[in-house]
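Researcher: We're teaching a course module on how sequence relates to structure. For the next exercise, students receive a sequence and then see the predicted structure as tokens, so they can try to spot secondary structure elements on their own. Here is the exercise chain.
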Amino acid sequence: LLSHFSSTGFWGLVNNAGISTFGETGWLPMETYEKFADVNLLGSIRTTLAFLPLLRKYKGRIVFMSSIIAYFTLGNGIYSMTKAAIEKFCDALRLEMKKFGVQVCIIQPGNYARCTKIQPPLSAEEIWSELSEEEKAVYNKEYVQERANFFNSILSEGSTNGNEVVDAMVDALTSPAPKARYMVAKLKEKALVFVCALFPTVVMDSVLSYALSK
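Model: And here is the predicted structure for the students to work with:
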């Protein structure tokens, strides 16, 4: 890789690729879990390892796209799982890279579904048609419809100000003293993260259970 860059060096790597979907744990086949881990987690690790020699050489920056959903989940545990894993990968990498002068930053957006289109709305019929016979025996269409309506309503509330996330990425790449984490989210979303981080798990479970029941 070194031969492809001039003496000005290689400054920054932004790991932004990601996919999302909705569904309770048993609704999704193992192949979907493998695909999500491959894109959202291993994809970022692959690019990081490929460019690590250059980043160390030029004391560059590595920026990862995480999410506040790394702290809690509301029907998209598969996405939350990959973001939580990226957070821990970054925590290890950030400490290891200090001795090389390489800075590692995490961007934690809230709900920006309306401007990223990372998660298209899902109909109950689409979800039901993909369920195994075992899951269909446990759940009914009415429940699936309720969950689909709930999740789609969350998507519809997403911010359209994607520039807020881009601004955080630019700051992470160019600031003389970048933050380790940039949480770009609404106050309500930040409050959920606060509760999750500081309160007992039973409290957070109660809050999320209440939200899911509405």
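Model: If you want an answer key for the exercise: The two ends are 52 Å apart (CA to CA). The chain has one domain: 12-121+160-213.
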